[in-house]
Amino acid sequence: MAAAEEVKAILKEAFGDSSSESDGEPSRGIRRRARISDSSDEIARPLSVFGDTHTWEQITEINGLWICREFLSTDQQSSLLSSLERDGYLAEGSLNQAMRFGDLPPWALELSRIARENILFSTGFSESGDRMHSENEEECLFPSELLWREPLFNQLIVNIYQPGEGIGAHVDLMRFEDGIAIVSLESACVMRFSPVEASSDSVELLLSPGSLVLMWGEARYLWKHEINRKPGFQIWQGQEIHQKRRTSITLRRLCPTPQQ
């Protein structure tokens, strides 16, 4: 119980009280909406210390791709945006992209800690850090060797996208280790995944405000991801998404240098 109260205090301090690189032209080919795993395969932990149940959805077409759509409550999102504004990330006239390496700001450290605790509560790790059931790689939310590394993340990038601005298809640089987390704030958007190897197939995933995406393994190395917010491209379930400013926070870990 003490540990639960400690995590609650961390959440409240960091995000308040919880409530109930360029535009890319999409290649032509087959587009599929992300297929979510059957409800019996979704990972959730009722009555967690995070308040409402946090459900992690597995994107079955791509191994190593998961999303938690309600990772941050509305109040927590507002508090996080306030922290970004206080640190100058959202100031008028500021750059639309900012990076930090090494020592991360307190809000990013707390965000990393919340992500780790959320995964722990959702997947049933023991206090020793071992899974309490056999681990099927294809159904694994986040590998334990990544979850328990220290620090979990030591690099962040904050991107601010105005309406119409997006990012071209890419795989994150190899200077970063496996295991990437992306938090979405403000405007919703559709992220499109396509195989690194030439293919006309693609998978689309709706990123809602407050969601957290995890990419590791095949999702991190074998699939490109992009967001095209030009008029006519942000369509979900037959409806065009009204574009507003979108802010994203990407957390990664640098590969060690030879001296390390």
TrEMBL record:
PROSITE patterns: FE2OG_OXY. It comes from Salvia divinorum (Maria pastora). Residues 14-37 are annotated as: Disordered. It comes from the Eukaryota. Gene3D superfamilies: Alpha-ketoglutarate-dependent dioxygenase AlkB-like (2.60.120.590). PANTHER family: ALPHA-KETOGLUTARATE-DEPENDENT DIOXYGENASE ALKB HOMOLOG 7, MITOCHONDRIAL, SPERMATOGENESIS ASSOCIATED 11-RELATED. SUPFAM superfamilies: Clavaminate synthase-like. This is Alkylated DNA repair protein alkB 8-like. InterPro entries: AlkB-like, AlkB-like_sf, ALKBH7-like, Oxoglu/Fe-dep_dioxygenase_dom. Belongs to the alkB family. Residues 152-255 form the Fe2OG dioxygenase domain. Signal peptide: none annotated.
